[in-house]
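Please decode residue identities from the backbone states below.
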């Protein structure tokens, strides 16, 4: 079968598209024919050796995939050949066929497309865990979402609204600001004079929950706009700059800085993760959340698509298709 292969930790343009051994369904494992493969920011870090995890090389990247089951191991109980499923795979997703344990598979309702299912896993899964478990967002609170037109940002806007928050979306261009507004943000801002704008919008009270997948200067502006008992969520560093925190701000403003590592959460707390995914699917079917799929691209174009994601050139979710 064909797959995207990282033969060494190297720049994205050294990813290869070529032959890879076909996976087998053993024990509690299933194999699907991939219909949609999600592209995520960590994928691009992983293949360059810049992520927290470093798998043995060569490997096939890709952490989320959806398709139809074509083989099931002898110990599989709840899934059968022909079922439509999506899964979190950690690696191995950028391929025509993908194997994973039954426990990682989520059956898809007929009303959910394979592309939307991929978006719900990582992007929405991260944002949901961030706002629910880590940020403990409550109805009526003010949520500020940086990078509000990206995959996790759009998700955070929609999930924040589903949880009853007042949502401020921050994005870098008029086009991206329009996407944030269409996702449901009550107020949309750019990054210029962000601290002062947030202070004015909140009447000097500050932000209750800050959602930051961007880092860099935007993190400092958001930190200075946090309110008493606020929770500033560290999601990632799409700007390419890991910021430094003036910890005296947390003292005088009485807010917490909370790390969000969704991948580790899914391993450490699988039951909570499963419950989160059930809630997201219910919200999807009720129309409360709806992924924004910017485009679907050939699997062979994975390197160029990843470059767009890492360069913050994408709005919404990008999908690869074999």
């Amino acid at each position: 079968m064909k797959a995207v292969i990282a033969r060494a930790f190297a720049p994205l343009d050294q990813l290869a598209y070529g032959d890879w051994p076909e996976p087998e369904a053993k024990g509690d494992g299933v194999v699907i024919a991939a219909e949609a493969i999600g592209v995520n920011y960590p994928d691009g870090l992983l293949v360059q050796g810049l992520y927290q995890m470093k798998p043995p090389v060569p490997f096939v990247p890709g952490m989320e995939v959806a398709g139809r089951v074509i083989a099931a191991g002898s110990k599989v109980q709840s899934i059968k050949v022909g079922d439509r499923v999506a899964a979190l795979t950690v690696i191995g997703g950028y391929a025509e066929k993908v194997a994973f344990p039954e426990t990682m598979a989520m059956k898809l309702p007929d009303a959910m497309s394979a592309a939307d299912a991929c978006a719900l896993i990582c992007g929405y899964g991260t944002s949901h865990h961030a706002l629910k478990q880590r940020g403990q967002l409550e109805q009526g609170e003010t949520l500020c979402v940086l990078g509000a037109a990206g995959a996790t940002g759009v998700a955070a806007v929609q999930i924040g609204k589903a949880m009853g928050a007042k949502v401020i979306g921050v994005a870098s261009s008029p086009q991206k600001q329009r996407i944030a507004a269409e996702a449901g943000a009550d107020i949309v801002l750019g990054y210029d004079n962000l601290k002062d704008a947030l202070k004015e919008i909140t009447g000097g009270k500050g932000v209750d929950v800050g959602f930051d997948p961007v880092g860099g200067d935007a993190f400092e502006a958001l930190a200075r706009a946090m309110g008493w008992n606020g929770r500033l969520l560290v999601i990632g560093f799409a700007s390419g700059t890991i910021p430094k925190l003036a910890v005296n701000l947390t003292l005088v403003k009485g807010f917490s800085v909370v790390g969000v590592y969704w991948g580790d959460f899914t391993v450490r707390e699988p039951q909570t993760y499963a419950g989160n995914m059930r809630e997201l699917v219910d919200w999807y079917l009720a129309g409360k959340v709806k992924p924004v799929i910017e485009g679907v691209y050939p699997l062979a174009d994975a390197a160029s698509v990843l470059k767009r994601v890492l360069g913050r050139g994408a709005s919404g979710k990008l999908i690869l298709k074999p």
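Observation: The chain has two domains: 2-108+292-321, 123-263.
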